[in-house]
């Protein structure tokens, strides 16, 4: 018998294939491809690297992974939208259970009750945190959720054609919005910052009847806590919706946007149980009022009963969705990020009512300690407003130079926020609950050394 | 197992004040009281009422939920157009490596060269597989990739001064719902064209709608009836001659790797579903990954940032003035891309080609085995999936496709896609994939055949299915009419 290269994911032997061809009544697989015209056939074998055995693959990918500095090796002081947070050890084993990991979208509710119930619970937690009435069960990420919220606003505020977005929103969120705005053909104007928070006077000037929504980040990209109440009051004479992009961890201590007048609250649940993973997959959330319920993008899970009266869960309000409504759907969402909604539901359940407050407070403590130590060494902090777990200091040298030097000393430093602040060498730093006093002290000493002043 | 099936608690119902499942190190720095800095109205007054459960309670809760869920490792999952193939375990090990999962997207690129090298090489491999010149890995899902590509069409037409003129995207009636929805999100009107009785695109109808207002066409080949559009070159030519562009929905790529590709077929842009063809687990609805590939003339419009190689450094480059911009945070669903890379490196060219051949073989074998029991609307050999119709069962016994799907659940088999494509009455779309052996294919076939016999003997039995699941058929109408979307204590059973 000829030796044939075996592939461990392909179960057939040559005898199996022969038997199946006989059943079909053809002599070769090529006959099954008879509808593929010769002209559109691939002429040569694909030019891909030779296949690797499992051992070779593991060696190769470990080598690649080994070239990256990672957060188990050195302390990270970068945030800017992705955070190095504590993930309870139970999260990974539960989301790795194959019944969750390898299932499809729960279109057959009778055999998807686990997934559906977990997503229903997630929606409930998101509504509780944001104090909104309804939530969908996941978006690609927090930036995409901003863009989808703007699309909803444009579609529901009559005669509107414009979105105002604060410069205090993560620049990746602003950029994503602009791409969606190009598609839907609406205007996007940025509202400047007054030092470190949204300029209320400028907001007043830019607000007119054509504005569908005002988008604010809470806490904002520079870490500062926006006064949502004042912003909402400023908007009170218009029909514009207030869209708030909120860090869900900060909502452990900050008043919920829903209680401050937000119409749509979006964000990313990466702080709860989702590894940084080079920025993806993360999972966005999207919560709003009952009034806007039928315009929400992506899936929603609802509670119902089966024919025996037993409680169960189904995907609901599906007439908003592309597989039913086609070109009239509220979005083109199909896959969302369900597995990471599940991960964050587990993490939120693990933290519970007390844990989220404690974790949020530790973020405040650690970052303010970092700030105090830097100020003691003469660094200038740009934030004037209260902040959560991030703030901006001004460096003497470029952020890149400082970060490369810090890397030599065993740290991943902060983010270059110069474009957002308008101040050259603006250094956005973050300290989460994972940072110890010892790590913070060592980081401050190293930053003093590499930044060229003390 | 019977006991677990009876577990019906919501996590809020097992919650008890004071229970926690976490612990953090003691705070080792001075306490900072934010309430002194902020106005009182910005301080949370009522704690978020998250559940309070002990660690064992929490683990049991989710373990119990998992027993009510069906994954690809639970049994056959012949879900058409979704490509539910085996998700290799080694890929999970690799994606979880600290050097991949514990890295930050904005750390300096010099400190993440391994990640960038992987992404760069994956771009190369996907370009080769699709026959395209450039790839962006940024889109988070298939529909997201569709959107990125159609926005690129828009940017291209605008750059040519034809932005206002080109208003329409043509979509066959057999297309996935994401296609027309994507056209709308990209600001286009979608024009539907019918399929022929043979299940492929009607060239005459196509010619009637293609004109100077055509921005492009979106289609998948093989199509959603599992058929290869043998007139594909003519279709693409008709659109190109009118100045439109051709977009390939890669959802069905599992049928043609190494045999045919969208580049050779003449398409200008494609997306791939890495979670389908390249074994990312579907996760109960994501994360997916939907890279897009384009021919060279569209390259300037690709989303930024792009991953490139400069001398010996892999770099992140956003300096493309004609780009449609950013469509998502960071660089795409990196963790899913790592899994796809691992799969491609495991299979190589030879393996991927065999994947497609076996997928097509399995599909035709399964079709052959059940074709005498259900109507098969299209006579040709199928590609990796095929459709059957329960029209006969509906007319004679008032049993519909959905009932057949529900009864399959009792046989330990996930239902196929029902009622899609829309062009076939009482449709079941079946895709076994290449990872099922003859034994499992026969198990699926036997279940279909048994159900066909059951319908003839006792149709009511099938209409009332499923019987063996944790819940019976659920009342979806009430769920939509009186939506309950969050936990409400007053609604406790």
Description:
The complex is a heterodimer of chains A (454) and B (493). The radius of gyration of chain A is 26 Å and the shape is globular. Chain A is built from 15 helices and 15 strands. Chain A has 454 residues and is α/β, with parallel strands linked by helices. The longest helix of chain A is centred in the last third of the chain and has 39 residues, at 338-376. Chain B is an alpha/beta fold. Chain B has 17 helices and twelve strands. Chain B has helices at 2-5, 55-66, 89-95, 98-101, 113-130, 142-159, 178-185, 203-209, 232-241, 262-265, 274-277, 334-370, 391-397, 401-410, 438-457, 459-463, 476-481, and strands at 134-136, 168-172, 189-193, 214-219, 245-250, 269-272, 292-294, 306-310, 313-317, 386-389, 417-418, 427-430. Chain B has a seven-stranded mixed β-sheet with strand order 1-7-6-5-4-2-3, with helices on both faces. In chain B, α9 (232-241) links the parallel β4 (214-219) and β5.
Uncertain segments of chain B of ≥5 residues (pLDDT<50)?
none
Strand content of chain B: 5-15%
* Secondary structure: helix percent of chain B: 25-40%
Strand order of the largest sheet of chain A: 1-9-8-7-6-2-3
Strand content of chain A: 5-15%
* Bulk shape of chain B: globular
The gyration radius over C-alpha positions of chain B equals 25 Å
Shape of chain A: globular
Got a strand count of chain B? 12
Please tally the β strands of chain A and state the result: 15
Order of helices and strands of chain B: HHHHHEHEHEHEHEHEHEEEHEHHEEHHH
Mean pLDDT reading of chain B: 95
Structural class of chain A: alpha/beta
Helix content of chain A: 25-40%
User: What's the overall average pLDDT of chain A, rounded?
Assistant: 96
Number of helices of chain A: 15
For the biggest β-sheet of chain B, the strand order reads 1-7-6-5-4-2-3
Query: What count of helical segments of chain B does DSSP give?
Result: 17
**Main beta-sheet annotation of chain B:** 7 strands, mixed
Which regions of chain A are unreliable across 5 or more consecutive residues at pLDDT < 50? none
């Amino acid at each position: 018998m000829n030796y044939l290269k075996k592939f461990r994911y392909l179960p057939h032997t040559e005898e199996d294939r022969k038997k199946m061809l006989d059943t079909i009544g053809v002599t070769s697989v090529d006959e099954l491809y008879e509808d593929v015209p010769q002209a559109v056939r691939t002429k040569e074998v694909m030019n891909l690297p030779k296949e690797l055995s499992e051992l070779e693959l593991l060696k190769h990918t470990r080598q690649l992974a080994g070239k990256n500095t990672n957060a188990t090796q050195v302390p990270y002081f970068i945030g800017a939208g992705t955070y190095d947070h504590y993930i309870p050890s139970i999260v990974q084993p539960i989301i790795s259970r194959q019944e969750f990991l390898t299932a499809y979208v729960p279109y057959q509710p009778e055999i998807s009750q686990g997934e559906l119930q977990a997503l229903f619970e997630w929606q409930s937690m998101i509504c509780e945190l944001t104090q909104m009435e309804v939530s969908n069960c996941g978006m690609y990420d927090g930036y995409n959720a901003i863009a989808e919220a703007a699309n909803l606003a444009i579609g529901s505020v009559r005669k509107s054609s414009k979105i105002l977005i604060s410069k205090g929103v993560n620049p990746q969120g602003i950029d994503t919005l602009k791409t969606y705005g190009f598609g839907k053909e609406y205007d996007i104007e940025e509202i400047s910052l007054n030092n470190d928070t949204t300029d209320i006077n400028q907001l007043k000037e830019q607000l007119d009847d054509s504005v569908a929504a005002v988008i604010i980040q809470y806490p904002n990209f520079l870490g500062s806590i926006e006064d949502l109440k004042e912003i909402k009051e400023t908007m009170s004479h218009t029909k514009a919706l207030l869209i708030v992009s909120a860090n869900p961890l900060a909502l452990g201590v900050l008043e919920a946007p829903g209680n401050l007048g937000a119409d749509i609250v979006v964000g990313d649940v990466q702080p709860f149980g989702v590894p940084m993973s080079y920025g993806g997959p993360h999972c966005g959330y999207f919560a709003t009022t009952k009034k806007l319920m039928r315009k929400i993008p992506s899936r929603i899970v609802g509670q119902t009963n089966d024919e025996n009266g037993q409680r169960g869960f189904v995907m609901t309000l599906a007439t908003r969705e592309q597989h039913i409504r086609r070109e009239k759907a509220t979005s083109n969402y199909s896959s969302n990020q369900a597995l990471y909604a599940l991960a964050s539901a587990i993490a939120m359940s693990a933290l519970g009512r007390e844990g989220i407050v404690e974790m949020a407070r530790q973020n405040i403590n650690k970052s303010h300690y970092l700030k105090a130590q830097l100020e003691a060494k003469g660094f200038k902090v740009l934030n004037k407003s209260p902040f959560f777990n991030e703030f901006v200091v001004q460096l003497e040298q470029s952020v890149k130079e400082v970060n490369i030097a810090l890397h030599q000393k065993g740290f991943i430093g902060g983010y270059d926020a110069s474009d957002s602040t308008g101040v050259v060498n603006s250094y956005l730093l973050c300290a989460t609950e994972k940072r110890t006093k010892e790590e913070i002290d060592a980081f401050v000493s190293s930053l003093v050394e590499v930044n060229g002043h003390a | 197992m019977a006991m677990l099936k009876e577990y019906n608690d919501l996590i809020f119902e097992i919650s008890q004040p004071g229970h926690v499942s976490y612990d953090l190190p003691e705070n080792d720095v001075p306490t900072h009281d934010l309430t002194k800095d902020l106005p009182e109205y910005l301080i949370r007054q009522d704690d978020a009422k998250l559940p309070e459960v002990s660690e064992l309670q929490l683990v049991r809760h989710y373990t119990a939920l998992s027993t009510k869920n069906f994954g690809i490792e639970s049994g056959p999952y012949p879900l058409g157009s979704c490509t539910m193939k085996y998700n290799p375990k080694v890929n999970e090990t690799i994606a979880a490596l600290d050097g991949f999962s514990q890295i930050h997207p904005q750390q300096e690129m010099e400190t993440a060269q391994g990640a960038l090298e992987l992404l760069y090489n994956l771009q190369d491999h996907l370009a080769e597989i699709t026959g395209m010149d450039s790839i962006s890995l940024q889109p988070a899902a298939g529909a997201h990739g569709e959107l990125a590509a159609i926005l690129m069409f828009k940017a291209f037409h605008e750059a040519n001064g034809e932005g206002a003129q080109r208003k329409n995207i043509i979509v066959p009636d057999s297309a996935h719902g994401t296609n027309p929805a994507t056209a709308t999100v990209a600001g286009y009107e979608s024009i539907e064209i019918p399929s022929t009785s043979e299940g492929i695109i009607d060239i005459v109808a196509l010619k009637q709608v293609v004109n100077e207002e055509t921005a492009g066409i979106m289609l998948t080949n093989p199509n959603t009836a599992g058929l290869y559009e043998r007139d594909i070159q003519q279709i693409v030519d008709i659109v190109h001659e009118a100045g439109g562009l051709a977009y390939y929905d890669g959802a069905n790529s599992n049928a043609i790797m190494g045999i045919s590709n969208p580049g050779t077929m003449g398409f200008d842009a494609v997306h791939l579903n890495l979670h389908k063809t390249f074994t990312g687990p579907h996760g109960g609805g994501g994360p997916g990954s939907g890279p897009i590939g384009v021919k060279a003339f569209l390259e300037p419009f690709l989303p930024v940032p792009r991953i490139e190689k400069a001398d010996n450094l892999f770099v992140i480059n956003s300096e493309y003035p004609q780009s449609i911009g950013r469509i998502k945070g960071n660089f795409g669903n990196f963790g899913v891309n790592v899994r796809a890379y691992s799969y491609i490196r495991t299979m190589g060219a030879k393996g991927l080609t065999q994947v497609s051949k076996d997928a097509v073989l399995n599909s035709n074998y399964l079709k052959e085995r059940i074709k005498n029991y259900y109507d098969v609307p299209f006579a040709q050999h199928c590609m990796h999936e095929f459709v059957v119709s329960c029209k006969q069962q509906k007319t004679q016994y008032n049993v519909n496709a959905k009932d057949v799907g529900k009864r399959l659940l009792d046989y330990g088999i996930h239902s196929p896609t029902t009622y899609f494509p829309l062009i076939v009455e009482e449709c079941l779309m079946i895709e076994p994939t290449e990872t099922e052996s003859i034994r499992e294919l026969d198990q699926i076939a036997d279940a279909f055949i048994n159900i066909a016999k059951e319908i003839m003997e006792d149709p009511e039995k099938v209409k009332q299915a499923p019987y063996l699941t944790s819940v019976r058929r659920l009342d979806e109408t009430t769920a939509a009419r009186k939506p309950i979307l969050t936990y409400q204590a007053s609604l406790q059973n």
